[in-house]
Each structure stands twice: as structure tokens, then as C-alpha cells.
Amino acid sequence: MNIDDPKTRHILRELERNARITNLDLAEKVSLSPSACLRRVQELERAGVITQYRAVLDPVAMGKGFTAYVGVGLSDHSKAAQEAFEKSISLAPEVRECHNITGVIEYLLRVEVADLAAYKAFHTDVLGTLPQVNSITSYVVMGSPKDERA
Predict the structure, then answer these.
(1) What is 6-46's CATH number?
(2) Which of 51, 71, 94, 109 has the smallest number of CB atoms closer than 10 Å to its CB?
């Protein structure tokens, strides 16, 4: 499957915008016949380019109006410490994303909670209790003029 093909790229852009688009509407938008469009989408799924379809939820409507990105440095840089941290974080529903990164810290988290009080509780009662954690730096999101996550 050639993902550099302009038609394929167009299909992927349209699906990123609206994964619930009907095949008929998608085919029309990308100027393909419905059968050719469906074949391409199925090939993209089989090739693992499209791994899943998701609903984008409004955090405020879900009671999660406070978002922070949190940089976490570990006190021990061993594989065991990283695995223990990742296991603990995987159990925290407040953490929507966890990325192992390069640089002066090991992890970048996206945390969604109801408000500042809920974030303080997460910061103190979850992150603050993990023995692997050496440093925590919070970046509170004030707005998101561009967010293309699905």
C-alpha cells in the first residue's frame, strides 16, 4: 500500500476529520468510485495504517475541564524503575497520555481532571506517592487553538 499516493493521503485526511463518513460520501470527496474507495480503506486497515476508529469527546462535557501536561523525572533510570512507573501510571484514569521522551526528564503526561483541586489531589496522592518520581513539572493548558488528536 502506497501511503504517499495523493488519493490515499486524501482518504486519510478525510477519515481523520470524520471517521464516520459513509463510503459513498468519502468516495465523492476523494473523486473515486465507491468500490475503489472501499478497497483502499480496507487495504489501509489490513496494512495497519488505520489501526482503529475513535470518538472525540469534549473534556468539559465529560467533567474534565482542567488539562495539564506534566513532565516527570525519575530518580532511578533503570528499566525496572521505568516499568514500575509505567505500570502505576497505566492505572491512573486521570492520565490520558503517557510518553517516554528524551531530554532531562523521562516522561510527559497529559492529565485531564475536573478542576485545580482534582489536579492537586492527583499530583499529591498519585504522582507524589510513586517512589520512582524525582521531579514533577506541571504545564497547565489555558487553551488549545490547534488540537488534531482523535
Answers:
(1) 1.10.10.10
(2) 51
